[in-house]
Design brief:
alpha/beta, 9-stranded mixed β-sheet, 26% helix, 28% strand
Length: 234
């Protein structure tokens, strides 16, 4: 854990996907570089966490903060539904790993940020459900859509980004029933939940958008790192 002025260690979950690099065409644990850049710019040391592993409070305490990153759809079986025709093939090892990471982080009151899929993982891990498909939140494949969202006054998120802000989205699923303890704190013009907070926690925020795609604005990551620093100093 961070101490004596060292940078907080911020865990970032990764994808296990087929990729090509150099001479290799293989399966690898990968992540958009922008996550790493944002954590560094915010004052943290990024630590990549591949899918899998034994994640419990006693095996996660060396981290100072955790980001559950974006990616493929959560397996609908996890929230009691059969997969729809537009739902991604399951990445079960990633689902299992990230559910365990969420529960371990919350047990430790570790500062936690869920990004896109990460917010959905947080909701499902705590007992919520998802809409398996919504329209209008993807400009085109691989292109992020900008939208204005309204943020609830007095929420932790409003204290970070204000009560109205532009965000970058790329998703076709959204929160449906909120898990117990989760509170919607931002919405898109069509009513889609754009952010949630978990009541009674120092920092547990999920956003449907992709703040890592704007390296010029790392306020959300900076708030995560600052909370980790404050927690380490207690």
């Amino acid at each position: 854990m961070a101490s004596n002025g060292s940078r907080p260690l911020v865990g970032l979950t990764t994808y296990l996907e087929p990729v090509r690099f150099g001479l290799w065409d293989t399966k690898a644990a990968v992540l958009h570089e922008t996550y790493v850049e944002c954590v560094r710019a915010a004052g943290g040391n990024p630590v990549l966490l591949p899918p899998g592993g034994d994640w419990r409070p006693e095996t996660l305490g060396w981290l100072d903060a955790l980001v559950i990153t974006g990616g493929a759809d959560v397996n609908p079986l996890a929230y009691g539904q059969e997969p729809g025709p537009l739902t991604d093939a399951p990445r079960q090892s990633r689902d299992d790993s990230e559910f365990a990471l969420v529960h371990a982080a919350l047990a430790l009151d570790l500062p936690l940020l869920g990004v896109c899929r990460g917010m959905q993982v947080l909701n499902v891990a705590l007992g919520g459900t998802l809409h398996q498909h919504v329209e209008g939140h993807v400009k085109s494949p691989g292109v992020f859509a900008e939208t204005e969202v309204d943020v609830v006054r007095g929420s932790a998120l409003a204290g970070i980004v204000g009560e109205r802000t532009a965000v970058l989205c790329h998703h076709h699923q959204a929160l449906d029933a909120l898990a117990p303890g989760l509170r919607a704190v931002a919405t898109a013009p069509d009513g889609i939940v754009e952010a949630v907070e978990l009541d009674g926690r120092g920092f547990a925020i999920g956003v449907q958008s992709h703040p890592e795609q704007n390296i010029e604005d790392v306020r959300l990551f900076a708030a995560l790192v600052r909370t980790a620093e404050e927690r380490a100093s207690r």
